[in-house]
Amino acid sequence: MNSHDTNPPRWADAILRSLLRPSDRDSISGDLLEEYREARRPALGAFRANAWYFKHVLSVLWRLIRPCALAVAGLTVLSLVANRWSREGFVGYGSLVQAPGLSLLHALIYLWAGYHGSQRTRLAKTGMLTAGATGFVGFTVLFSAAAIRDPGLILAPFSNPFIFVILALLLLLALSYGVVVGAVGGIIGRWVAPTAPRQPAANA
Amino acid sequence: MAEVIGQFEQAVLLALIRLGKDAYGRAILLEIQMRLDRDVSAGAVYATLERLETKGLAVSKLAPGTAIRGGRARRYFAPTGIGIRALNDAKSAADRLWQGLAWPLRMRT
């Protein structure tokens, strides 16, 4: 097979392109595609080359969501501290359901993530992606913090597989909440002009 | 006094100077990985390039893509005069900090 015909997974390329500013969409995805075809795929094989590609997609996603992810991580830690003093704490503040990641404060962060993502990329769908990813970070931080406080939690799902189902449901709730609120932020951000658009560059 | 730049910004600007007219995203990423002798994420490099452009330390222009990149355009970067001055200032500051010290440093017994 000619190296020109090999491609990274189409979904990974689509995610990458949706995370980039319009002015960078072709150039950055082209750089990674060139490295993938010319060096990584021939040297590493399909599986490891795809993993390499996806790792760089995640690094671009992380750069985009970092402020929101740090905010949601901070909120999660604060909620754990607050829960020591009050029964409700920040997790439950304004929640319709008593589940992590569903408070009004979380909604504000997801709204910000959605707005920021779509305002930068000019794509409303990016808002859902960035807010969903932010929700995933928040859930992971919460589970990690809970596991540090009670190490038995890590092994609990293996002794009682039903806990896997509960965790998956909680994760699904947090992600869905993030995606829905992020969609609203994304629609708003899509119609707001970018803060610092790159000047149209002349082709060489 | 020019813009104060961090270590990674220096690495990226120096890569632009070393690569000259061949300084586009992929080449910059590989050059930095080689010089720092570690894996560097694409996200970090592109975010730094964007920041350098915003600060006026680098400029970019698009060029047509090649077949191996599926025809996608290449973006070439170059340091500006302000960028070069910032690098010179960073080097001078580091030299002043090291002045009078024997390198490599040794633990006092």
Helices and strands in order:
The complex is a heterodimer of chains A (204) and B (109).
Chain A: H1 10-18, H2 25-85, H3 89-92, H4 104-121, H5 124-149, H6 152-159, H7 162-191
Helix pairs in contact in A: 1-2, 2-4, 2-5, 4-5, 4-7, 5-7
Chain B: H1 7-19, H2 25-36, H3 42-54, E1 58-63, E2 74-79, H4 81-98
Antiparallel strand pairs in B: 1-2
Helix pairs in contact in B: 1-2, 1-3
DSSP strand content of chain B: 5-15%
Largest sheet of chain A: none
Distance between the termini of chain B: 40 Å
Q: What is the radius of gyration of chain A computed over CA atoms, rounded to a whole number of angstroms? A: 20 Å
The overall pLDDT of chain A, averaged over residues, is 86
Shape of chain B: globular
- Main β-sheet description of chain B: 2 strands, antiparallel
Give the terminus-to-terminus CA distance of chain A.
Answer: 32 Å
CATH topology name of chain B: Arc Repressor Mutant, subunit A
* Helix-strand sequence of chain A: HHHHHHH
Give the structural class of chain A: mainly alpha
CATH architecture field of chain B: Orthogonal Bundle
Describe this structure in words.
The complex is a heterodimer of chains A (204) and B (109). Chain A has seven helices and no strands. Chain A is 76% helix and 0% strand. Chain A has helices spanning 10-18, 25-85, 89-92, 104-121, 124-149, 152-159, 162-191. Chain A has one domain. By secondary structure, chain B is mostly helical. Helices cover 51% and strands 11% of the residues of chain B. Chain B has helices at residues 7-19, 25-36, 42-54, 81-98; strands at 58-63, 74-79. The longest helix of chain B is centred in the last third of the chain and has 18 residues, at 81-98. The model of chain B has no long low-confidence stretch (mean pLDDT 94). Classes of the chains: A mainly alpha (204), B mainly alpha (109). Chain A binds chain B through residues 3-4, 24, 26-35, 37-38, 55-56, 58-63, 196, 198, 201-204, and chain B through 24-26, 29-30, 41-44, 46-47, 53-54, 60-70, 72-76.
